[in-house]
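> forwarded from #structure-qc
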């Protein structure tokens, strides 16, 4: 009967699954934020250059082609109108007639002449004459405007090709962050590396904690940002990024993880955004690489595997082990509880050492008897010697 009841009794309840948190910053550094209901769209046109650079490649190429094609068509139509208005198209076979542009016999010829003028090709078959003042003015105008279009479009394409965010693709972050002891203190750590031989100059690292909070007045802040110290006060945030480095955030009283134990950390809901900035050595342009870690990407009680080995005359970095970690003994309590336990241990040692010295002094005094030397009558270790009546007894 008991077996039947056990068979029909419900099993142990499964723990509720954590709902996946929406990332604020993707692992590849893209910010997962979209601007919606922007009514003042004219602001984008006030900075047209940046707007064109920020466009996707297919739109940039389309705008690049249209800018030249429309300019050529526009001036080609004007050249054709000049020829049509002067009657050049009606005197094509008249050798005594001096046209505005030689050998311009239609719209296609006017379009080709516009391309030759703006690109300064100059094949020599179609050429402007000195009997057309309006053509001379148009030639100057097209030359100036064509130079401006060339400068603008070539500049946009050059900046887009040499954007420093492409350099950020070779700056890598570890797939997980770890929490373990360093010099007796709990630390949150992650690793960064540079895959290129050309280095990042003046590299610096920052870390932000993103999580919701509610103020004392009841205001809810959905994506509150808190700085995580990674050595700003000591200068450790400025990196010499030649080989992979482990960035450490010491969990002290100023850290938002000061009272977070392992269990509390697993139940928490946050995102850690790390930002690496520096100048590209080859171009001098500022580069920024970003990544993030969710709660389930923070491993408690782990440490990073070493990737640096000494070879014959050089150091070798093994990036195959860049993301690997291994478990190490780590207390599950919070950093605050660990500090309090260490303080109690230090206090116990501080008071226990004088007590043991006092006991040793008393044993030496009782062994010497009543005729003990003057050494027993002196104070030792801050304690008075026993009275004479007690020593005589």
């Amino acid at each position: 009967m008991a077996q039947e009841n056990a068979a029909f009794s419900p099993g142990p309840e499964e723990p509720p699954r954590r709902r996946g948190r929406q990332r604020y910053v993707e692992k590849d550094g893209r910010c997962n934020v979209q601007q919606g209901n922007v009514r003042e769209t004219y602001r984008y046109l006030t900075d047209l250059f940046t707007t064109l650079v920020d466009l996707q490649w297919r739109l940039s190429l389309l705008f690049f082609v249209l800018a030249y094609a429309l300019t050529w068509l526009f001036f080609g139509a004007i050249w054709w109108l000049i020829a049509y208005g002067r009657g050049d198209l009606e005197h094509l076979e008249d050798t005594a007639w001096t046209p505005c542009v030689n050998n311009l016999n239609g719209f296609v010829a006017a379009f080709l002449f516009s391309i030759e003028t703006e690109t300064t090709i100059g094949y020599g078959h179609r050429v402007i004459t000195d009997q057309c003042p309006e053509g001379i003015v148009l030639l100057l105008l097209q030359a100036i405007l064509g130079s401006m279009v060339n400068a603008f479009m070539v500049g946009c394409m050059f900046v887009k090709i040499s954007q420093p965010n492409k350099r950020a693709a070779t700056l890598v972050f570890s797939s997980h962050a770890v929490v373990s002891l360093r010099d007796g203190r709990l630390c949150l750590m992650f690793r960064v590396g540079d895959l290129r031989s050309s280095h990042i100059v003046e590299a610096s690292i920052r870390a932000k904690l993103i999580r919701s909070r509610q103020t004392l007045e009841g205001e809810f802040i959905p994506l509150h940002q808190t700085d995580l110290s990674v050595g700003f006060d000591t200068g450790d945030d400025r990196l010499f990024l030649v080989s992979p480095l482990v960035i450490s955030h010491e969990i002290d009283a100023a850290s938002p993880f000061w009272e977070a134990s392992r269990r509390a950390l697993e139940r928490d809901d946050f995102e850690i955004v790390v930002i690496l900035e520096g100048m590209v050595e080859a171009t001098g342009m500022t580069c920024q690489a970003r990544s993030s870690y969710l709660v389930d990407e923070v491993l408690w009680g782990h440490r990073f595997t070493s990737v640096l080995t000494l070879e014959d005359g050089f150091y070798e970095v093994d990036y195959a082990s860049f993301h690997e970690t291994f478990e190490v003994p780590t207390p599950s309590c919070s950093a605050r509880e660990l500090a309090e336990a260490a303080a109690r241990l230090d206090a116990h040692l501080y008071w226990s050492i004088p007590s043991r010295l006092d006991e040793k002094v008393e044993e030496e005094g009782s062994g010497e008897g009543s005729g003990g030397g003057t050494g027993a009558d002196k104070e030792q270790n801050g304690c008075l010697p026993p009275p004479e009546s007690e020593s005589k007894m």
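QC bot note: Confidence is low (pLDDT under 50) at residues 1-17, 370-393. Residues 335-368 form the longest helix (34 residues).
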